[in-house]
């Protein structure tokens, strides 16, 4: 690891966070030495606020998860339309067609260097607090709790990729070579940091500080992290604490569930036109929105077929898997489909979408017909979820819809999975069926392996395109089964003819050894105590 600089650079974005009434009003701070920071609590708050930007960076609107591409493109549910290499273009396709490109020299969904830069900064903060803070123990504990929440958040990102990590809990440890700690030791740190946050964060902040992490946000995140750690009782207890609090609820309309500032949002990051903002709409709107560089990736038929019908039964798609099919009865599918995907015949920004060859509202382009798919669909669908349907001036106005990092539906599903692992089958069914009831789907009464199969699909459709599926399939060790030697599909629509097509032209692959990513060469070169994982030597 690189040696510490004595000057702490505090670069704070004017950021907007979750608030029922308003967001935090923050003033940017330039370069401050660590001692000067502790002269004024407002300066300390600005330092801590910088850690909140990690929520954006690791969101679907940021670039830290997969260099800006959606990790759903590493499953069979999302297809980038370009074959020319580039992020949000040919790189994701290359990764699923040729996973041997993953090496210790380069992994686009690795975060090793980024994570340790952030961990260094947080440890710098904790070190300077110990040296210079003259504020009350209670106030120090709130700052430390927020910092340790985000340290857990970043170690979680490391652990789900690498398993074993280098644990640094103090600044002096980062000044010398240090060996890898076990996966269990890494999860111990995540759990310990989250427990400290839970014990020291308030249930609510004053109005002027709304948007900061609360006790229940830390509990909700713990329910997620402990599932990855397979500490089922800890995940169950954390989820149950959030549910029992009565503070959160599923909103009635699924189409607003991920939009923030509602009863379902537990932790979110807010944007505004002046900044910070993002470009998600520019990346994914269809050409008919008036922006020629959108629709970089689109949902696949495999994702569409994951949705049940309104009555809870599965649609028989076999009649549509041929070259001369009619339009499928999309209207028969449950509400989450209509809220997630722009399908042929749906209305988007007042236009009836065609998604067809030479279509005016949604135009089809065969994969590889040109290097980049700008504005066109290669699958017959466009992404709807997470886009702002009220944003009309795509070229001139940045995107400002919030990123909801944790919402209540996920916590219910986390409890369901943990309860299943703990043989609490009744509670598992109850928690999952609450999520289904929101969209008027009948309750599932299955048990055992059949229930888990139902749960996998339920989580897939409820949390679709929110950045969970790829990592879930990795932690379940199902990716090498479900994503090996398969192809994604879509529809080529010409007039009233729907032709079921292969949109990949070659098989997708998933290598089992990529369940654990390699230690980067840069770490091996600078740390004599770290050795590469055996499968990557």
UniProtKB/TrEMBL annotation:
SUPFAM superfamilies: TPR-like (SSF48452). Residues 23-224 form the SusD-like N-terminal domain. GO terms for cellular component: cell outer membrane. It is found in: Cell outer membrane. Keywords: Cell outer membrane, Membrane, Signal. InterPro entries: SusD-like_N (IPR033985), SusD_RagB_dom (IPR012944), TPR-like_helical_dom_sf (IPR011990). Pfam families: SusD-like_3, SusD_RagB. Residues 288-536 form the RagB/SusD domain. Belongs to the SusD family. This is RagB/SusD family nutrient uptake outer membrane protein. It comes from Haoranjiania flava.
């Amino acid at each position: 690891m690189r040696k510490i600089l004595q000057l702490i650079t505090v670069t704070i974005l004017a950021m907007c966070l979750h608030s029922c009434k308003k967001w935090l009003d923050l003033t940017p701070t330039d370069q401050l030495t660590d001692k000067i920071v502790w002269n004024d609590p407002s300066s300390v708050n600005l330092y801590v606020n910088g850690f909140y930007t990690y929520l954006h960076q690791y969101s679907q609107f940021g670039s830290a998860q997969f260099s800006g591409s959606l990790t759903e493109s590493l499953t069979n549910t999302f297809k980038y339309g370009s074959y020319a290499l580039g992020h949000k273009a040919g790189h994701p396709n290359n990764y699923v067609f040729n996973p041997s490109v993953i090496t210790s020299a380069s992994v686009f969904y690795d975060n090793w260097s980024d994570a340790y830069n952030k961990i260094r900064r947080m440890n710098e903060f904790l070190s300077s607090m110990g040296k210079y803070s003259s504020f009350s123990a209670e106030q120090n504990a709130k700052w430390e709790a927020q910092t340790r929440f985000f340290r857990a958040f970043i170690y979680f990102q490391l652990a789900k990729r690498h398993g074993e990590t280098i644990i640094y809990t103090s600044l002096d440890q980062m000044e010398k070579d240090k060996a890898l700690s076990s996966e269990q030791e890494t999860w111990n740190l995540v759990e310990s940091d989250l427990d400290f946050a839970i014990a020291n964060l308030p249930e609510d902040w004053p109005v002027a500080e709304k948007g900061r992490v609360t006790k229940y946000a830390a509990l909700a995140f713990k329910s997620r992290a402990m599932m990855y750690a397979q500490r089922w009782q800890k995940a169950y207890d954390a989820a149950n604490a959030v549910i029992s609090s009565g503070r959160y609820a599923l909103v009635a309309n699924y189409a607003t569930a991920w939009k923030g500032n509602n009863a379902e949002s537990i932790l979110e990051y807010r944007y505004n036109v002046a900044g910070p903002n993002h470009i998600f709409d520019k990346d994914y709107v269809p050409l008919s929105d008036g922006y020629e560089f959108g629709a970089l990736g689109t949902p696949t038929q495999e994702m569409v077929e994951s949705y049940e019908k309104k009555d809870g039964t599965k649609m028989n798609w076999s009649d549509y898997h041929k070259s001369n099919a009619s339009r499928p009865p999309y209207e028969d599918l449950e509400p989450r489909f209509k809220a997630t995907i722009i399908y042929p015949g749906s209305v988007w920004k007042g236009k009836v979408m065609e998604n067809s060859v030479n279509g005016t509202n949604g135009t089809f382009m065969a994969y590889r017909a040109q290097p980049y798919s700008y504005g066109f669909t290669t699958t017959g669908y466009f992404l709807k979820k997470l886009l702002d349907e009220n944003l009309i001036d795509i070229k001139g106005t940045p995107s400002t819809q919030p990123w909801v990092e944790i919402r209540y539906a996920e916590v219910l599903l986390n409890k369901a999975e943990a309860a299943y692992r703990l043989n609490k089958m009744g509670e598992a069914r109850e928690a999952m069926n609450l999520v289904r009831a929101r969209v008027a789907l009948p309750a599932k009464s299955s048990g055992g392996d059949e229930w888990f199969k139902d749960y996998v699909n339920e989580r897939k459709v409820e949390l679709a395109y929110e950045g969970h599926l790829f990592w879930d399939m990795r932690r379940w060790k199902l990716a090498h089964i479900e994503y090996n030697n398969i192809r994604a599909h879509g529809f080529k629509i010409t007039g009233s003819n729907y032709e079921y097509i292969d949109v990949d032209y070659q098989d997708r692959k998933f290598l089992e050894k990529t369940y654990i990513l390699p230690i980067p060469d840069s770490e091996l070169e600078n740390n004599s105590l770290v050795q590469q994982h055996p499968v990557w030597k």
